[in-house]
Write a sequence for this structure.
C-alpha cells in the first residue's frame, strides 16, 4: 500500500499510474501464494510441545536414541579414510525425520536416512573422516537436526592422525 501511495502522489498521471500500481499489487499477491506443487512435508511430522496455555504435551514426542554419541577411531595413518555408523532408534511415539546433518569440518562427511523413521525402527548415520592433510589429535562434531525436542543432537568423533616418517 505504501508503494501504491508513493506512486500515486509522485506523478500527476493518476489514471495510468493507478492502473500500473493496481496491476503490480495484484501480481505480488497472486505470485506469493503458491503451494509449491505439493512438495511440502506433512505437518504431522512436526510436533511442538509448547502451547499457549503453558502446559507441555510430552507424551507424543519423537525421541532419537543413539547407541553411542562419541566414537574414537584410535590411530590412523595420514591419508587414510575411516568410517563409522552411529546406530540409533526412534524410541518416541511419532515418526522421526532427520532434516539436516552438519559436520564441523570438510574432512568429515555424513550419510543419513531422509525418509521418516517409524517408532521402534533402528537406522544408522554413516560418518567418514578423511585424514588427508591432517596430523595429530582431531576432534570433530556431527550435528543432527531432527523433529525431536530438543531438535539438535551433537555426536563426536576422535582420531589420532600419524604422519609417515
Amino acid at each position: 500500500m505504501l508503494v501504491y501511495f508513493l506512486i500515486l502522489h509522485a506523478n500527476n498521471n493518476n489514471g495510468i499510474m493507478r492502473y500500473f500500481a493496481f496491476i503490480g499489487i495484484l501480481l505480488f499477491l497472486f505470485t506469493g501464494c503458491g503451494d509449491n506443487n505439493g512438495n511440502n512435508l506433512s505437518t504431522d511430522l512436526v510436533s511442538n510441545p509448547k502451547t499457549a496455555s503453558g502446559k507441555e504435551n510430552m507424551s507424543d514426542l519423537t525421541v532419537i536414541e543413539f547407541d553411542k554419541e562419541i566414537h574414537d577411531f584410535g590411530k590412523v595413518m595420514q591419508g587414510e579414510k575411516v568410517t563409522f555408523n552411529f546406530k540409533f532408534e526412534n524410541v518416541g511415539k511419532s515418526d522421526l525425520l532427520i532434516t539436516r546433518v552438519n559436520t564441523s569440518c570438510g574432512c568429515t562427511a555424513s550419510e543419513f536416512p531422509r525418509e521418516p523413521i517409524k517408532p521402534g525402527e533402528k537406522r544408522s548415520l554413516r560418518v567418514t573422516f578423511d585424514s588427508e592433510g591432517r596430523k595429530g589429535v582431531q576432534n570433530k562434531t556431527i550435528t543432527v537436526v531432527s523433529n525431536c525436542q530438543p531438535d539438535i543432537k551433537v555426536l563426536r568423533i576422535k582420531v589420532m592422525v600419524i604422519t609417515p616418517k
Summary: Residues 1-31 form one domain. The chain has two domains: 1-31, 64-162. The chain has a mean pLDDT of 81. The two ends are 72 Å apart (CA to CA).
